[in-house]
Amino acid sequence: MLPPAQQPIPNIPDSGLKKVVIVGGGFAGLKLARKLKSGPYQVILLDKNNYHQFQPLFYQVATAGLEPSAISFPLRKIFHNTPNTIFRMAEVHSFDSRMKRLYTEIGFIDYDYLVLAMGADTNYFGNKAIEYFSVPMKTVSEALYIRNKIISNYERAINIEKMDDRKSLMNVVIVGGGPTGVELAGAMADLRNNVFPKDYPELNFSNMKVVLIEAGPKLLAAMSAESQQHSLKYLNDLGVEVMLDTKVHDYDGETVKLERKDPIHTHTLLWAAGIKPNYIEGLGQEHYAPNGRIYVDEYNEILGENGIFVLGDVALLREENYPKGHPQVAQVALQQAENLGKNLLKVAEGKERKPFHYKDLGSMATVGRKRAVVDLPFMKFQGMMAWLTWLFVHLMAILGVKNKLFIFMDWAWNYLSFDPSLRLLIKPKYVRASERKELIEEK
Amino acid sequence: MLPPAQQPIPNIPDSGLKKVVIVGGGFAGLKLARKLKSGPYQVILLDKNNYHQFQPLFYQVATAGLEPSAISFPLRKIFHNTPNTIFRMAEVHSFDSRMKRLYTEIGFIDYDYLVLAMGADTNYFGNKAIEYFSVPMKTVSEALYIRNKIISNYERAINIEKMDDRKSLMNVVIVGGGPTGVELAGAMADLRNNVFPKDYPELNFSNMKVVLIEAGPKLLAAMSAESQQHSLKYLNDLGVEVMLDTKVHDYDGETVKLERKDPIHTHTLLWAAGIKPNYIEGLGQEHYAPNGRIYVDEYNEILGENGIFVLGDVALLREENYPKGHPQVAQVALQQAENLGKNLLKVAEGKERKPFHYKDLGSMATVGRKRAVVDLPFMKFQGMMAWLTWLFVHLMAILGVKNKLFIFMDWAWNYLSFDPSLRLLIKPKYVRASERKELIEEK
Fold this sequence. Notes:
By secondary structure, chain A is of the alpha/beta class. Chain A is 32% helix and 22% strand.
């Protein structure tokens, strides 16, 4: 990261409006910016990427079903013809709440309202070896890395004579029995069952294990008992080895050591076992919960700070039914952003703000082709119908007509052909010579 | 590159058939492998990538119109259900024509027939400074790099206060007036005219130059005078500065120095001015022309070597109308591969081979939206009709129904919306910690 620049961010038009500065273009930050786009504010949206990422479909990028571009949306394009919304690609460093100033790598900016919506990253719970050797999946880059890694493992495996030496390249171990882990395991098993044997006829895929490890006693702990049981059954049907009540102890890049169980050999340990909020300097320790979330009141505002709001994964807002805060999921982020947007518009009109109340719309997860589990407030269902519901809901949630159309076609194609076709090892191998580290050092 | 391994490539099934080993899965290598797939040979296809690249559309990847996956085809997928065709992803080192053995990074393989179809790479004509600072476009990785580079230049430019300091980040200079240079210049001008001003309302794009530099007196030197004149007119209409009879003298990453003309400031110099054949050790110098191509007879065979063939950009086959060899284009590669495929099948049946004759089917180039130039053997035409012809011909040449469909939809969308939507800076930023060089060195 570059050090924070010591001049104001250049070329921000002087609108005369109050400034709302939003850190992060995820579900919460983007929703809020859209909500405010015709309001009486100048909105400055900052993100370290120039695109919004649709996290629920990362696992399909990792398993060659969708292209990164299908689930990534250029933020500038979203704000065409909205002159009061300014986007800048920048890493954010810290803020000074007394001066009402935010510091970033491209300069500082003075705000009237600051919104912290920087989401969460992977949590390794302090295990350095796992952090060092495993692969996370919290960005579209990481999802693409997983795809490339698995394909290159098979390209390596095919050149190894002895079957035993090949196994660790072929096995895939996923840690974390939440929706991400379950969806990833199901999609990996589909690839093993339907696709890889055709791609690599020289390899025997009955030797390839797909293992899903969960520390707790259940998969999908936040869902209903029906969903938990069905998802376990579906994974078993697909040939996924599900290990519940199992803790990963250590990993050296080749062998996963488990507490009280036999080790598993794999080059590919995918870590989907926990998240921790991203951190920006500027607040006293008293504002932080032990898990790194920031305490906010019912308006998503930080108590005692002047005009600083927190949304989504980073916010810890205690409601009657959620004494430990809300689940760190997209629905909460979106609803909080919606409420804050309305409140900021109310404030401008001198009206009273409304406190946030979370409305749980339900949750769902897919497990391979044609199977999913759905918990709605009024009903629960599983199987093919749940899968179609999952497809429909995610398609509707995707931004933009073009992306909807292309994802729909990709899904239809993959479904009919049993053959997601994106098994390309397009590594960004090319780097201009003048930017290559080894060449620069030689000079 | 890894050193050549000293054992045979493992896991090649013993078919009892004669082995045809093909180096390179480009137009020629892929065509030949497909031609032989039900013949009496075991075909081993080697490529350093696991996909075939459709080079004529690289410029659309570079200008955010198409995804890399739309023009890249997993080679393994193409050879599903063809047990006598084996694919391996490997870099090739050298061959020993007396032993009939080819050395690669994954082992050696003994061949009956060796086919060299490794294509060509960028030629900087010995200018190290240009090689160091400019960007080539001979792979899909490089095309993607160009896209990312241009987008990140604008994200940087927007944070620069003074207009003069911004210009060099905004200008794009393309060297080489062949089809690649012309198509790239047209598409860049389209982006400048239609897309970037909406993405970056704070920047003034009348300050952005798109410059096309050609050392010779004409654009598209291999095409008709009509096509040359029309393409120049179309580029002028789009606001491209075309500089003919202009030689690039030097480049330091910021300033392009020209012979006898004012220098141009740019961070982005795209080099499409020449190619040179890729090289594999194993042949005496007498087989090479000064430009690096390998002399072959009318059967694409190297004289005096036993069963070594050369196809496409690497081959130098002199015909009556082509005393200096054929142009280094896809059509020649495809026709040579077709002929060699037929000849190898004839040889297996004890029949006589046919010499190669090139049939020039014509050539074409697009210049931005709705305009192209087409030279066919029986007629020449330009404009909208030529553009539709260009679209149709390229769509038909693309492998696979899915890719055809998706590219067609992308084109239709981009055409109707004036808004190619792939302006994503998805850098493969993520690398697993255990693979990061700086961390490994720290350890």
